[in-house]
Design a protein that fits this description.
Length: about 250
């Protein structure tokens, strides 16, 4: 399921570290859905629950400063996409309906209100090779964590090991949600027209990759990645993609 949430803001501005705001908004929606009974399905203390959704935030003519993003209209869009394998779409659609027209407070005496929910048409993956493009305001995050030092390294298209590391991250993601090895072992990632960007996320700066990626593999796995997002932090505002083409050139 893919939904477009049309948001109205009191002021046409938001904190530069806005992904954490959207995550709080998703939690807010779940808390107001049927008494919050689905909240722990996605967020439970600090447990590392693998989530099968992603989101991207789109602003109108954004102007970026060190602390804030300003836009030319008192509105923005949240593109929310998820797999329907575990009824995630139905749960979140119900949750969003529950908080429609409710104020969600923001910093600097600002607030945002969900005014309209539009269900978007999804693409059916019918080929084993798909050209994906990161959605505007999004990027592919490839994180490598060192347990000994407890430090993260972020790999981008500028690094020679990008494809290898991205494939490992995506294979692990598919394995953790129940795909069989023969469904993810042949995943290949190739950057086609990409560049590195740096974004602020929970107070730290993260390197990520935007642009066109050629990904090949099992069609069911590719469908899942398209719907749920791919890579590290895919449920935190990274890894959301659109399909621009399927199949190899003849």
């Amino acid at each position: 399921m893919r939904l477009e949430l049309q948001m109205e803001l009191l002021k046409p501005e938001i904190d530069i570290d806005y992904r954490r705001i959207i995550i709080s908004y998703l939690k807010f929606a779940l808390e107001h859905c049927e008494g919050g009974r689905f909240f722990e399905k996605f967020y439970k203390n600090r447990d590392n629950i693998v989530k099968d959704y992603c989101f991207s935030t789109v602003f109108s003519k954004p102007r970026f400063t060190k602390e804030k993003i300003y836009f030319d209209k008192n509105e923005m869009k949240i593109i929310f996409s998820c797999s329907d394998r575990n009824r995630t779409g139905l749960i979140f659609q119900t949750a969003f309906l529950a908080i429609q027209h409710m104020k969600f407070p923001l910093a600097n005496e600002n607030h945002m209100i969900l005014r309209k929910i539009i269900q978007k048409k999804e693409v059916l993956i019918t080929e084993s090779v798909v050209y994906f493009q990161t959605i505007l305001g999004n990027g592919l995050c490839v994180r490598e964590h060192n347990r000994e030092t407890n430090r993260d390294t972020f790999i981008t298209c500028e690094d020679k090991e990008f494809s290898e590391k991205a494939e490992t991250i995506i294979k692990n993601q598919l394995q953790m949600v129940g795909f069989y090895k023969n469904q993810y072992k042949d995943i290949k990632v190739e950057p086609i027209d990409c560049k590195k960007i740096v974004v602020k996320h929970y107070g730290i700066f993260i390197d990520s990759t935007i642009g066109v990626l050629k990904i090949s593999g099992n069609m069911n796995a590719l469908q899942y990645l398209y719907q749920s997002g791919l890579g590290s932090h895919h449920s935190s505002g990274f890894g959301a993609v659109n399909v621009i083409r399927q199949g190899e050139d003849e």
